[in-house]
Structure formats: C-alpha cells, structure tokens
Amino acid sequence: MNGVKACSRHITSRYLGARTVRQSVTRSFSSTTTSHAKTDSNHPDSLKFVSHFQSPVVQQLWVARQEAKANVTATDQSLPRVPRQSTTSVSYPFSTNEFLKESYRNPWGQVRFGKILEDLDALAGNIAFAHVQDPAMTIVTASVDKIHISKVSSLETDLVLSGKVTYVGSSSMEIRMQCRNLDDSEDEYWLEAFFTFVATDPETKRPVKIAPLKPESLLEERHFAAGKQRATARKEARKARKEASGSIGATSGKFGAIAKDLMDQAGPVINMPSISSPDKILMAQTELQNCELAQPQTRNMASQIFGGFLMRKAYELAHSTAYIFGGTLPTFYEVDEVSFGMPVNVGDLLKFNSRVMYTYTSSDKSTLRCFDGLSQTVSVEVEAWVIDPIHHSAKLSNKFYFTYAMPSDVPLRRVLPSNMEEARKIATRMQADHIQALE
Description:
Layout: E1 9-11, H1 18-35, H2 56-71, E2 88-92, H3 98-103, H4 113-132, E3 138-149, E4 159-168, E5 172-181, E6 191-200, H5 218-245, H6 253-271, E7 280-282, E8 288-293, H7 307-326, E9 331-340, E10 349-361, E11 374-388, E12 393-407, E13 414-416, H8 420-438
Parallel strand pairs: 1-2, 7-13
Antiparallel strand pairs: 2-4, 3-6, 3-9, 4-5, 5-6, 8-10, 9-12, 10-11, 11-12
Helix pairs in contact: 2-4, 4-7, 5-8, 6-8
C-alpha cells in the first residue's frame, strides 16, 4: 500500500476474500478477548482492528491513513500547500472481485449508495490529513454541503473515487470528490461531493489554524473561489436559521410569508381532515423512526462513532420514508446538506427521526437532468438524537437532508405543516434548496 506522498496518491486495493475476512476477524477477536478481556472501547489496543468491521474500501483508506500518520512528522502550518498534495483516489474493481461486488450490491442489483457515503467520509478524512500532515491534530467532519449524482451506477463497471482539498479557511477546508467509471476521463464523473472538515486541538477540542491553500491553475482558482462562496453562504444560512428559530410565530420577513401561506393551506387539513383535499397530507403523518445502540464496531479512528455510518443509517431511513410516501421505489438524487452538531460515542442510544419536508413537480413535467421519466422530487429530513433514558436527556446530534426523484406519473401529496414551527422549517428548507440549485 502506498503511504502519504507529497503528490497525488492512489490507495492500493488489497480487498480481502470472504475466508480471509473470517480469519482476520477471528484473530482480532481472539487477541482482544484473551489479552485485554477487561479493556474498554477507548483503550488504544481496542482500535487496532476497528477497520476490519468496515467496508473493504474504508478499511484500506483507514489503514493507509494510519501508515501515513506513522511515517510523517508535524509540518509548519504557515507554509501553503497546493491541491495536488492532497489528491487521493481509490478504485472499485467490481469486474474482477466478486467479494467486493457483493459487498456493494443492493436488493436491485445496483451499487448500494449508503456504502458509498461511508467511503466518501473516509476518503475525505484521508484527503484532509494529506493537507495538514500533522498527526497531532484531530480532523473531523463539520458538514456535507452537497452530494449530487447524475446516474445510477452499475456493478458491472469498475469505479474510481477521487478528490482533493479545493478551499481552505482558517481552520476548515473544503474537500471536493468525484466518482467516475474507470474507463472514463476525469471530467466524466457521475458523482460530485463537497465535504467540510475542521482541524481541532485534541486536548481543548477547539479549532486550530491549518496551512493555507495555493491554487496552481485557473481551474483550481475557480474551485477556490467557489469554495469561499459556499463557506460564506453557509455562515449566512446559519444566521438566517438562527433568526428564524428566534421568531417562530412571526409572519413577516422572507420565511414568514411562505410559512403563513403554508399554514393557510394546512387549515382545512388540520381542522376538517375527513373532508379536506385527498392530495394533501400533514408532515407529521409522513414520519418514520428507528433506534440504534452505538456499538464499538462502528467507531472511527478517533474512537467515536464513524460519521459515514451515521450518514448511511440516515440515508437508509430516508429512502424508506420516500418509498412509503410515494408508493413506488424512489431514485436517489442528492444529499442536500448534512450537519454534525456533536460527536456520538460508543454506547450512546441513537434515535433517528425522518419526515418528508416537501415535494416538487416540474411545472411542465420536464424530466430532471440526467434522469429520464423522473420529473418529481421528495425532500426528506432525518434528525439523529442522542437520548439518555437514565438521565432524561435528549440532544440533537445530526441533521440530514436528502432528495429523491420520482416517476412523472406517480401522484404525490402536497406536504403541509401542523403548526408555525413546522411551517417555518419547511420554508427555510425550500429556500436553502433553491439557493443551492442556483449554484
């Protein structure tokens, strides 16, 4: 496997067969249970085999990052880096590796996108470390700003997932990643993702300054400028959401007018449900939920629950929500936003709540870009809460927003709020998605 270099790197694929995996996990279990029977999940020795419980790609990325940390000394963060220093890629040889192919197969014979979300988070971590090149720093996922696909990928085609740092602030960095077919050129990608990572001090947990980024080409300068614009937009969006949450009952302002209109439409459904229009439904009636105990096998290299795992669980619940709501198999379209508010630890009880926020149908029934026959979308919100029944505590950990495409001939109900708080939430999300669509 290639270690960290000062230039573009490809994570060598050493995918394990089923028998090798069983032997490896057995050795890991034997080692930890006999030699460290009383160690807890935070003990350094318990992390030695944590990558074995992940997907083959995540395993390779984490092993590569561990090797990189072991072979690099802290570098001067005042010296600028160039984007090619963080460029990293990993391949999916589905055509020659049946075990890998089965690991990524969904029930319909396509690539299981929840697993790709895990791989994106792991790859972004490697790219972030390649930029900072300081093993003493802790790098964490701050947000996912957008993941968009232009087609449903086939398991019959080998893939390449790659990315690099495209923008750096003071302590944060934007990471742009793409996935393409192995035989296609680099600009023929079918997936594009933007992650924001933050470097923190392991003791104080506060952000620390990282090396600036120096673009080397006109294209990299454009990427840098776009990243800066997105960072500014995120700050403005956070401010707008804070102002909106501080005035739940207000009907003035940008979101207030939309919220009031939504409540006016919801009035008959709330007060006369038996005779109201059958093409409308209250948001609360679209909700699904599940609970998950955070197991040590889902930790990351920092001994906290892997962000990619949380994204996969949220994605799968959102998919089920859209499936039940539309009555037909939804097609994943994009991740609109993911926020990471607080870390999730081993042993935490996680509660995932999902709901349909709103639906959209093209006015002229024109199909969505790159998706023939699909002209409607369903926007789904998933919240992850860390709940503590013993201490009667519940804290919001993550918010996820997904969009699914639906066939043009499927009748979708209009989703309406039950109260002004829900109305402002829908209005805020609709505005955020509108702004993002204009980028």
